[in-house]
Amino acid sequence: MSRHVFNRIREGVVGYDDYFECKEDAVGKIGYSSYQKCTAAIRMLAYGVPGDLIDEYVHMSESTCLESLYKFCKAMIAVFGPEYLREPTAEDTARLLAMNASRGFPGMLGSIDCMHWEWKNCPSAWQGQYKGHVRACTVILEAVASQDLWIWHSFFGMAGSHNDINVLQRSQVFARLAEGNSPPVNFTVNGHNYDKGYYLGDGIYPQWTTIVKTIPNPVGEKRKRFAHEQESARKDVERAFGVLQSRWGIVRYPANTWSCTQKLWEVMTACVIMHNMIVEDERPERLYDQGFQFQGENVVPEHGVAATFEQFTQFHEDMR
């Protein structure tokens, strides 16, 4: 993380919560500064270490480090969540379509997949619903990522006993499309016109018009070429998961919290937000030659009029 990104984060959380301000206590002693509290929180997120491991570095107690961590995550979601967890705007959609059309996939908006985060201290009464095929208690993160590793959709909190289909049925990835508020996507493939964008998924996902899967056991050069290109491009979301775990060790190692999944959601969401901030900061200059404004202050998601019930059901039938 660059220094100016850290300073922007620190200024944002200080403006949101006065807990991070340097104040005097009842006896007039100066407390910890915002640099100490933010550094402690980010180091715990980046290295996945407990609070008592960095107490000598920031000269803070373990309880204060943990309190700073959870307040930091809440402030990150409130301050930077609307911009860095937004759904693609019209400009974002145009950039994604141009980027993926050059790769041979016109109309593609990204890749979708799920990741499991192990929960070490899951309560015994809940372990039955949080254990799945990985033989450990996990919580699932569903994400949509583009080639530049920006995570456009983050849905976290489903128990590990679910699979990708169950998570898809409960997530909001296609909610704006079903409401008729998504940016227009028009493209032509083999002489057929389409008006909906799509995501690349693996074999477990259903046969929807908004999900393009590979061809199992392809026969012929054309089908083999398509399967190879689809499986290659779908790795964008796998790469995004790998980079997310490498940057934030707390989601790479098992979670140690004893409480409910609300704190897990706050930690994971804060890591996704900072991941997108780093991706935005590290974008090469050549991307700006496409004529789109990528880095903007306070990007507001677009909201339209909600669809009627008949329109909502019709959109869902079209997707399926």
Topology of helices and strands:
Blueprint: H1 3-16, H2 34-47, H3 55-58, H4 62-84, H5 90-101, E1 108-118, H6 127-130, E2 138-145, E3 151-159, H7 164-170, H8 175-178, E4 187-189, E5 192-194, E6 198-200, E7 211-212, H9 221-233, H10 235-247, H11 261-281, H12 309-319
Parallel strand pairs: 1-6, 6-7
Antiparallel strand pairs: 1-2, 2-3, 4-5
Describe this structure in words.
With 320 residues, the chain is α/β, with parallel strands linked by helices. It has 2 domains: 3-83, no CATH class; 88-319, no CATH class. The protein has helices spanning 3-16, 34-47, 55-58, 62-84, 90-101, 127-130, 164-170, 175-178, 221-233, 235-247, 261-281, 309-319, and strands at residues 108-118, 138-145, 151-159, 187-189, 192-194, 198-200, 211-212. The strands form 2 sheets. The chain has a 5-stranded mixed β-sheet with strand order 3-2-1-6-7, with helices on both faces. A hairpin with a 2-residue loop joins strand 4 and strand 5 (192-194). Helix 2 (34-47) packs across helix 4 (62-84). The longest helix is centred in the N-terminal third of the chain and has 23 residues, at 62-84. It is globular, with a radius of gyration of 21 Å. The protein starts with a helix and ends with a helix. The model is unreliable at 287-303 (pLDDT under 50).
